[in-house]
Amino acid sequence: MKKVKHLFLLFALLFSSLLAPVGALTDNSTGASSATSTSQSSVAAIKKRGKIVIGTAADYPPYEFSVKENGVSKRVGIDIDLGKQLAKDLGVKAEFKVMNFDSLLVALETHKVDVVIAAMSPTPERAKSVDFSQVYYGDNQDIVINKADQAKYKTLKDFDGRVIGAQNGSEQYDLAKQQMKGAKLKRLDRVNNLIIALQSHKVDGVVMDSTRAKAFVANNDQLKAINPHFKTSGQQGTAVAVAKDSPGLVAATNQTIAKFKKNNTFDRVYIPRAGKYMSQRARQNTVWNYFVLGVGNTLLITIFAVFFGFLLGLLFALLRWSKNLLFHSIAVAYIEFIRGTPMMVQVMFVYFGIGELIQDIPAVVAGIIAISINSGAYVAEIIRSGVQAVNHGQTEAARSLGMSKQETMRYIIMPQALRNIWPALGNEFITLLKDSSIVSVIGVAELMYQTQLIQSATYKGALPLFIAMVIYFILTFTLTRLLNYGKRKLNRS
């Protein structure tokens, strides 16, 4: 019920933000934004909320990754342990938000998270947007290769003409781009996908920090890590990212890190613990439990998106028919703008942009809103085409019988239009079910997101994808049968 309330409230706010002038957004991003950042990211504000929200990627062992324990998926690793200890030192609970690595700083800047603990290097470019703690674990940059190729590669020059993989948005990608100009770069959102690509010979090497490289090599005797001696500048290692102008939180984070460095907690406790979890994960065989939550959220998103998308489509189809110039213009602007922008951009805008207005908006709710709004634009045009397909003589006959315009539309035009547009609506609903996979970019644990977790947990590339394809087919085939049943019912009426 709480999610439903969020949906109704946020739909109204979304439309007002979509129509807001760009200048207003610019104003909000200056002094007001800085003040908001300071207040929301202060230690006092976090203690008042009783929790600290930590952004992470959960695909980067031994720093942060997912395992299954007693049938339950959980986040583990060096960064997870550090986040929990930071929360304990602040006297609050730790809440982890998992998303793609290249979305983490956006989430921090838009106040979706309080800190980012995700094996992030404190580069000068990133420091322009966020503040960093002191480095909590130092690292070199290695390249992981297949052990069978170890005689081929020793230096960066040896990779000329070869394909090199790196995580999107990472320091490793920037280093490879700057210092391996003779190589072909391939970037993916998840490092586990890069390792799968390496093992299947889609790439010849994967650039990553030495700690991560050692963890992979220790758990896979077919891999080898080499140090090609990248030239680096600035602080080397990983640090906690904090929103700008949050000195209190930076100081609190540094206190926790200093305590761990003094007690050698990272090398003595955290890395061995992460290695134990990695070994445990490598022994896991079953993948079915991961799919259960994914299918549930996929169906939840689809059902709500179909419902709200149809309502929005009907509303804006009526507004477009309106003789009121304002209503007509709003409908045209909505339909053309939504159909002219990618759904992925809309999903990220709702989550990160509208999240500026409403804090703590759940990712699944943001996904439902974005997909519903996208669908509404297409449904509006489907309904309009269906109404236009009804012979105009039907309207004239109804009006000659004394029926009002509203009665004519309700009892004469719409029933016939619905019969005409049913196949097109069915195609739109099936598309919604498949497009729900896009919300995985903001960390919604739908089917595609869970599939990626399975790949991360098992290092199997093709099998989880094949199973996901089969599940999507079963869902779409079932929906098609239901739509065909509805079509037969309409034809009989």
UniProtKB/TrEMBL annotation:
Transmembrane parts of this sequence: 288-319, 331-355, 361-380, 461-483
Cellular compartment(s): Cell membrane
Residue intervals of the ABC transmembrane type-1 domain: 295-484
InterPro entries xref list: AA_ABC_transptr_permease_3TM, ArtM/GltK/GlnP/TcyL/YhdX-like, MetI-like, MetI-like_sf, SBP_3_CS, Solute-binding_3/MltF_N
Keyword entries, A-Z: Amino-acid transport, Cell membrane, Membrane, Signal, Transmembrane, Transmembrane helix, Transport
Membrane topology reported for the UniProt record: Multi-pass membrane protein
SMART domains per UniProt: PBPb
Name of this protein: ABC transporter substrate-binding protein/permease
Organism: Limosilactobacillus panis
Organism phylogeny: Bacteria, Bacillati, Bacillota, Bacilli, Lactobacillales
